[in-house]
């Protein structure tokens, strides 16, 4: 766990003291984080020397146009992808340089995940999916906490259902419960509302908000939907592999405005071959 | 459309690789066995055609006994003069050549081949057709001198000047090796000893007036066929067989080919298993390919391809696969044949790989099997592909495949199953061997089909049970692997079916052989009363000298000789049956416990009397006191009175149909010159069996081919003979398993690809590589064990029914080799682990990010 001495806050995101009682310290941190694809002349920088601190007990959204490197940032912070240069810490553990086995354990024990689609194992029922990370680790789930999570997400009467028997929104709620169940230090949500209709999407965002406010969790959400970003405490704007701006207590309109500004700024460079190829290359993530 | 087919074939070549391997294996066995037997046949045809005289006269072999009697069939030596006088005969020679001998060196070690090939002693008569030539030393010049063939001399380290002992039917004699003869043609594996002609007739046949045949060569301008007719006219065909060189070559090759035929049939058996198991693999591969490509096929249909075009496209792919597999299989078959030929030379049969014969029939058979099997196996999947609706281009393919109900399978499976069960009940209740066996065959085929068809229906209930402990033992990893195996019952069922077929056969054969062993044990315990049985290997008779020496051994009490006689009996129901009867000495009651329905041993062994099995008698309307006509070899006929009917479970096998027996005097009278096949020996009172055994061993030291066996040894001998059958079955099992493993690998590899995203997700949320590998391994194990359990269950049912057929042959004990069955189940789990190695490795190396990638 990070200590209170952990105060090297250099990104704008951390210049404001979070307004939550449970907040304090840094959940994850990156310095000079660089991720390059390809080599030589065809090298494409997905992340270009990014410094970022993710404050504990807050709901951080990462926004950016497609190809901005937001998913890559999440993958690198979560130890799913290796970095080309720079360092990443989860709490006070430096995860850059960890071996595959240690990274796997770290993801299992300290990080929760939600993805856009294919979040659940089709052969397991809802409850089995929720407790899967702990089962894999061979740990007993904390029953009280588990009950609280299940009730918060309203899944009590869906526990014996298989994913194929659940709606998209329900599936995403199960994924949310799974991410929360092991009480991880950090939850990464990659476009969690991307595949949902607006009502189900709102519901899921509400739950993530609740996880932060009531359960004291830390959530990092990658999204390109200003409406979704508006549910967060802080929005980081990514463009061309750099953090270009941030916004406290965002509203959908403000985020949209900011995005439009980036687009108009980026507009002239759209014809640029390198920017186009970066888009193409990053489409796959 | 053809272009699309070719593209698709090439695109899936990795996936088709394992199917191709199955085709290669089956074609290789078909081609290999054909090439091997063609090569052997051609080689021996040439050998015998080039070494046979133009016309040969031999004693008529009218009762070819399956049980060797030890007697050599002879003709009067004087016949040569009559043959020589026939117009058109340039030269005639009285041949002496016998196989009923044993040759031992000064240390009493056998000099003959250990492979079952004969040791042949003959007269040294060199012609331009002789298969050998003298390469060192000199020709034998009278008694006490002999030549040995170079290969045997080499192998057994015999040199010129060494003394060998020849144990011949008329008596034992010693010879000094004075020369070495080397084969100029292919050595068929026999050991050859040459004596000078006069010595040969005297020592081997017991009289200078006898010969084993007359060979005559034609004068210029006289054809073999013409000469044969002329010779036949002179000697008469009533008691002589006259053959041309070609006919002689065929007959000789056929005699020798017996054991080579066994190799051929074993190989074809392997090919059959490979084809049978391969079919499942191919069906499964194509089904999976089509399931994977449902969208693509739907698109083709949406673009206007009709059903026939889609079906043809899939079948074209199958034919391409068959062609590739057959071609590789043919090449592998040539390699296999070359290997077999090499193996034969290790047994002393010098075939040359350079003279390998690939007849036109071999590639035809290879391609017919390879392409035919692939085509047939791909037909159903192709039809299913044609049934893909254009809408499938838009829908999720995999779900549609899984969701199809199994109702048709349930109905067809139940109908076949009920019919099969009825046939097996018929088998168990039939009282005639023939009808019982055919019911068994029918039942086996039907129940196998039923299990294959209904396999997917059994997946759920059986794997639920088999994998029940997985969640408890391996947590969620166990749970996921169990449920993954249940995910696509069709696929799991078909994958397991490949293993099931092989293991069902093993289950059946192991029950049958265990039951046979147990039955024989019980029978030996019940019937054998002698302290010792003295026998040659393979029931080949031994010389009279052995009998005399045994009788003279201190402490020997009763000795009962057993001698075989080939005969034909004409029975009251009008049937003429050729079989082999046994002759016994008086006192047989002391060494064997025989129960009689009517009569007794004494009556059966009396002069002019015969005993037989009561069931055989009943079947052929023979009653006690009937007199039946009996034919012996060389046209000797007599009538014997039925004086005893035995009532006991006796095995009809081994060419001894009817259990006919009489006094040994009858054999001596009608089959003169025969040798004893077994001696039943009791210790004299006051001599302990252990003590006698030592003495008998000493007595028989100069006769390495003869063994002394007590009850336990005798049982072991029988067990060993049954074990040979079992080894063959295990070899077949090995092959079946290799192909089944390919099938499991295939299925798992595809599942891994299909579940890429799922696996990635698991890895993302913290499943370690090791755990992922274990998950796939467990799935593989549960599929393999499912196949094994199904196969063994089927095999046990078959085995019990097979035993019912055996019971009609007198083998009425049922034994289930539980240890073997447990071993097979454990073995199948190991198979599962092995099959999972590569797919698991591949899954664990998969990129984690693949799962969380957006569409």
UniProtKB/TrEMBL annotation, chain A:
Q: Where is this region: Disordered?
A: 263-285
Give UniProt keywords alphabetically.
ATP-binding, Nucleotide-binding, Transport
Q: What protein name applies here?
A: ABC transport system ATP-binding protein
Domain spans labelled ABC transporter: 28-265
Task: Recall the GO molecular function terms of this protein's record.
Answer: ATP binding
The lineage, from the top, is: Bacteria, Bacillati, Actinomycetota, Actinomycetes, Kitasatosporales
UniProt cross-references to Pfam families, sorted A to Z: ABC_tran (PF00005)
TrEMBL record, chain B:
Species of provenance: Streptomyces pseudovenezuelae
Which InterPro entries does the record associate with it?
Answer: ABC3_permease_C, MacB_PCD, Macrolide_Exporter_MacB
Q: Where are the transmembrane segments?
A: 265-291, 318-344, 364-382, 410-431, 437-459, 493-516, 724-753, 778-798, 818-838
Could you tell me where this protein is found in the cell?
A: Cell membrane
Q: Which family does it belong to?
A: Belongs to the ABC-4 integral membrane protein family.
Residue span, ABC3 transporter permease C-terminal domain: 270-390, 732-848
Please give the name of this protein. ABC transport system permease protein
Query: Which parts of the sequence belong to the MacB-like periplasmic core domain?
Result: 17-233, 492-697
Q: Give UniProt keywords alphabetically.
A: Cell membrane, Membrane, Transmembrane, Transmembrane helix
What taxonomic ancestry is recorded? Bacteria, Bacillati, Actinomycetota, Actinomycetes, Kitasatosporales
Look up and give the membrane topology term. Multi-pass membrane protein
Question: Where's it mainly located?
Answer: membrane
